Amino acid sequence: MTTTARWTAPGDVAQVVARMRALAAGLPPGDGVAVFNRVYLAVTDEVTRRLADGGFSDGPEAAALAVVFAGRYLAAVEDAGGREPGADGTAGAPGCWRPLLEARADPGVHPLQFALAGITAHVGHDLALAVVDTCRSTGRAPAEVAADYAEVGGVLRAIEVRVREELMPGPDLLERLDPLTHAVGSWSLARARDGAWAAARLLWAVRDRPEAYEECAAGLDAAVGLMARALLDPPGPLGPRPAQSSGSSTGAISS
C-alpha cells in the first residue's frame, strides 16, 4: 500500500478514543503497539477534556486535524493489531509503521523504544499527510492551517512528557546501555514536527503532479521508516521491563 492509499478516518475525537480503547483491549500490555497506544490514548483523552473546556483557541478546526491525524495511525495498526508479528497484516501498513509492527513482540526492545518509534512514524509521516488531507478537504492552503498545526503540536508535547515520565529507564540502566542512551539523546519531537511541516508544504506544492507527489510521499515513508527501525535496535540485556497494569485502559500511563 502506498502512503496515499484509501483509509478510513474517524468521525470525531470520541470515535478516535473508542477505536484506541478497542485496540488496547485486544493487545497484551507488553506489545509494542500497545505501549504506543497507551501513550497516545492518554493524550487523546486530554484532547477531549481540552475541547470540552474550550482549551483550543481554534477548537473545531484543530480537532478536525487531530482526528485526521489519528486516523492514519489507526488505519496503519488496526488490521495488524490482532495478528502475530510478520503476519500478512503487517505488509499492508506504510513502511514507517512496519518496524514497530515487526518488532512489537521482541523482548529485547525496551518500551521506551517502542514509544519513540511509534511517535517517529506518526509525527514524521502521518502528521505531514494529515495536513495535506485536511487542506484538500477544506480547500485551505497549509499556511491557513498553521494555527491548527500549532494547537496539535501543543498536544504532542504532552506525549513527549508522558513518554519521558512513564517509560524512561533509570539513570543506572541508561549508563549501562549506550545505544538506548543515544536513542533518547538524539530523538527530538520538535525536530520531527518541523520536518513534518516542511514535508507537508512540499507535498502540497506538488499535489497536482501525481507522479511527483507519489515519489515524495514514498520517499518520506521510507526515510521515516529507517529512523523508526534505528530506534528499535535492541540495546542489549535490559533486565525487568517496567510493570504494566492491566487494570485500566491506558495501562501504566494514567490519563
Supply the number of helical segments.
11
For the termini, the CA-CA separation is 34 Å
Oligomer: single chain
SSE order: HHHHHHHHHHH
Summing up helix and strand content along with how strands pair, one would put the structural category as: mainly alpha
Q: Tell me how many strands there are.
A: 0
What is the molecular shape?
Answer: globular
Provide a descriptive summary of the structure in words.
The protein is built from eleven helices and no strands. With 255 residues, the chain is mostly helical. The protein is globular, with a radius of gyration of 17 Å.
List keywords for this structure.
11 helices, 65% helix, globular, disordered N terminus, disordered C terminus
Q: What's the quick description here?
A:
The chain has 255 residues and is mainly alpha-helical. The chain is 65% helix and 0% strand.
Q: Could you outline the blueprint of secondary structure elements for this entry?
A:
Elements: H1 13-25, H2 32-52, H3 59-77, H4 88-91, H5 98-103, H6 111-138, H7 146-166, H8 171-176, H9 178-186, H10 189-205, H11 210-231
Helix pairs in contact: 1-2, 1-3, 2-6, 2-7, 3-6, 3-7, 6-7, 6-10, 6-11, 7-10, 10-11
